Amino acid sequence: MLSEVTFAVIGLLFLFSDIRTWTSAFQLTFFGYTNTQLAIMAGAVFATSFLAPLVGWRIGPRRSTALCGAILGITTLLATLSRNNLTDLSVTTVALAVGMWWLGLLHASRAPDRPSPLPVALPIAFVADVALRAAFRTIPVVDAPLTVAGPLVLVAALVFFAAGISALSGPRQWTRPGLLGAIGLVAIPPLIFVAETSGTNGAQVALASGLGLGPEPSRATQLGTVLVGLGLAAGSLALTRGFSRGIVAAIGCAIGAALVWAHVPTISLLGGLALAAGVVAAGATLPAGALVPGRSPLVVTLALAVGWIAFLAAAFGFYAFWAYEPAAWAATAVVVVAALVNMRVAVPPWRALALVLAPVAILVPVASLWLTPPGPAPEPARATFRLMTYNVHQGFNAAQIPSLDELADTIAHESPDVLLLQEVVRGWMIDEQHDALSVLSERLAMPYVFGPNIGDLYGNAILSRYPITDVRRIHFAPQPALKHQPRGALFVHIGDLLIINTHLDQFSDASAIRQEQVRTILREWDGEKLAILAGDLNATPETIEIALIDQAGFGDLAGSAGPTTIGDDPPKRIDYIWGVGVFASSAHILNAPNASDHRALVVNVMRQNAP
Questions:
Q1: For 30-84, where are the alpha helices, taking DSSP H only?
Q2: Taking CA 428 as the corner, what is the angle to CA 126 and CA 255, rounded to the nearest 5 degrees?
């Protein structure tokens, strides 16, 4: 049984990784397509889950599980090694399809008198996933430098193959659950979605509670991960008691999700703890329905296939509709209902496993928090300082490959005193679930202020070596067309200087929208004598929206720096630094396509009334 649990745990971790890599490669590759086009393409990939019964029927229980597991391990390793967006998309499409097949076939093909490993393996996988993300500072293992990621994933794949050979060495037969067990299987993919978006997502838990907004150093969202770890440990220990695990799962998920999405300080942190406990309990409950001999894997694989379509619907609803919270509520409701209808299922002994899981769930996030430097004390504001504005493209480079290391190196080379970032993500599944702001803040030793525009985890940020005060977060008027992202501006004071960071609408035919966004900024500016307005304005110098800024009295501080886009032919200037009551020198750009799809814009700034 140990080999089969090991086989299941590593396979689930591979599947979690492939889901993140595929969704990030998919959205970056096809950004700008209509929702209908995206839904058809993504639906075609997830619909391959319905082919699992055919694969199992044609090859048999043992060989089909072994073949899908082998392909899952190989494709995950190839995706780790490729560092190419189109290759990642192609390879993880295969990995996702065979991973969905593998999960159903492993559960359906049983050795005589041996239970499914999933009620044990799924909770272990959730705990291991959180521990790995905490240890790697939210950067997925597969996105770590190749010298680290390659050997780790290779070893994991070899252990996976060895465990699979041992687990599948004997005879196996098809099994099927009853109706209630099938309902539990349908809810497993939605449970994975709930975990990805909130249940094991420390950044979401922290931001929902008001942490991670700043001004603060990089440790805030790690506190959210600590609370998640405590919840996972509590859920694991609760499963050793006599009360129903289905009840624990339902109560934890329902109350926890309600508190997280309520966005109440402290209360939402406790909600994250409860939700994580519910996720562990649901992981032990949903696949634990009794299995009886069957003629094919049809019931198991079709139930999971329906669940994967529900996963896609929830993910598409949440991300395509700009962090649409009812999509997360719907997925949580599916999990709660399935846990309740399966609350009387028998589950394997849990005490020894809980005693192993609880320390891991707690100690790794706590160690990660403790080892994170608290950050230096702010320096007194100076009359002359270096300012950089940079669209970091969600932590991906111009080739759509994760690039947090390159971003940190590129920024550190210029050593800005004040850093303005756009397209900052903090834990989205469709962006590899990395917290780009915490990573950059820690590596640059710069406290930050964050201004979320889409949900809690996407927006603009300002990092500064000087004290940041008087923070205001401005949201632009929402647009009736869904294609327009929610946008806004971040206002702060550094000393007596107002700093404004913004990211305007991106569509070429949206000049009227950008003009209104500029007017909103100018109204909020209200004529302060010392001010800088900077960011990605998505408009070239001759446009009306740029003229509005000039007419308001702002001077162009970086007009001589040149174009700021990468990949356009010819490149365009759409990133700016404007100022009132200041002048600038040494304006220049940084062309680092391995870091972002924008060039960073840098100037040295001095107050006009400085001595």
A1: 35-47, 52-59, 61-82
A2: 60
Q: Is the pTM of this model over 0.90?
A: yes
Say if domain 384-607 classifies as CATH 3.60.10.10. yes
Quick: pLDDT tens for 159-210.
Answer: 999 999 999 988 899 999 999 999 999 999 999 999 999 999 999 999 999 9
In tens, the pLDDT along 346-385 reads 776 777 888 889 999 999 999 999 998 887 888 888 889 9
pLDDT given at position 610: 55
d(CA 143, CA 79): 10
Pairing of strands 469-475, 488-494: antiparallel
pLDDT one-digit tens code per residue, 552-569: 999 999 999 999 999 888
* Coil, strand or helix at 73: helix
Dmax (CA) of the chain? 87
386 within 8 A of 558, measured Cβ to Cβ: no
Domain ranges of the chain: 2-371, 384-607
Yes or no: say if 183 and 300 are a contact pair by the CB < 8 Å rule.
no
Distance (Å, whole) CA 209 – CA 186: 31
Phi, psi of 506 (to 5 degrees): -95, -15
Q: Out of 3.30.300, 2.20.25, 1.20.1250, 1.10.10, select the CATH number for domain 2-371.
A: 1.20.1250
Give the three-state DSSP class for 403: coil
